[in-house]
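Observation: inputs received (chain + iron/sulfur cluster).
Thought: call the complex predictor directly.
Action: predict_structure
Action Input:
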Amino acid sequence: MTTLTAQPPAPLLDRLTQLARPRETELFLARPLSALLAMHSVELLRARREHFGRRVLLFAPLYVANACMNDCSYCGFRRSSRVRRQRLGPGAVLREAELLAERGHRSLDLVAGEVPRDVFIDSVARVVDAILRRTAIERIHLNLGVLTDAQFRRLRDAGAVGYHLYQETYDRETYAKVHRAGPKSAMEPRLEAIARAHAAGFERIGLGVLLGLAPLTDELALLAAHAEWLAEQAPGVRLGFSLPRIQRVDEACDFQAPVGVDDEAFLKALLFLRLKFPRAELTVTTRERADLRDRTLAFGVTKLSAGVSTAPGGYGHSDDATPQFSIHDERSLAEVAEAVRASGLEPVVS
Ligand code: SF4
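Observation:
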């Protein structure tokens, strides 16, 4: 007698590969940027007008700790790096948040190396709660890696509204090569965790790839498929995207990007996401130069970091803090706000 047994579901990456449309992405990226802008100018304007108005949200990352269990070869915080490890206590995190609030910020991304232990996550939850109660900061997103359902819930209950979990690359071989040790070296749990973060109550979920690790066409096609999969799993999710780009050589983390992504390709990638996901938040960080960040506003970008440090304690007086990666736009919040106004848009902080 034959026994029927349920087949385990195929790995998510295989399912995403079936969903992805690399040919469509390739055709899009093959067109000159000027032609794409001419072809899609009406859609671009409509997407901004209907979903964001003239608003561009300005925010700052706040680095809580740089200890990490992973060994990502492109990151200055990797566990094999000899940087001095720092973990800010609750008082120091509050002081950093107060400093950012004094400078005019109201929206923070709280960032730390990945240490998915209950005691650490609980300490982050307590500082989220304290920042929201005791400073002028109004909105907190988190970037802490893959967590358990209970840890996601603990952080959501503390008042954080969004969770960012970038896949970095969808290329299996590259993923294995650059994520050399630690829990992040398992690709599948990371792919699936965004749906769990949403199920735990995070309405806003940020996805992204680290440009420069693998060929752009496949990365974008799979990122889009991943977002579509999430939207199907999690109706009502508010998607956000970021495409941090490794500069050809990042001196802060001593890493050479294997794939070049020039400015034109970067702008096309932003345009691709904006047209495909007109309601999604689109973020550009200070990894990019000031002139290019200003230019991205015409491509539907809705969120910019400003007045940034990528080191724990970097907003106070910690002059020996080691950054996670090199910054290429050192303008203050006021200067970035002025640049947004000069583009005919309205900078907002909350
Ligand atoms: S990228 Fe994130 S997970 Fe990887 S080493 Fe850096 S802090 Fe840790």
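Thought: report the result.
Final Answer: The mean pLDDT is 94. Residues 53-348 form a domain with the TIM Barrel fold (CATH 3.20.20.70).
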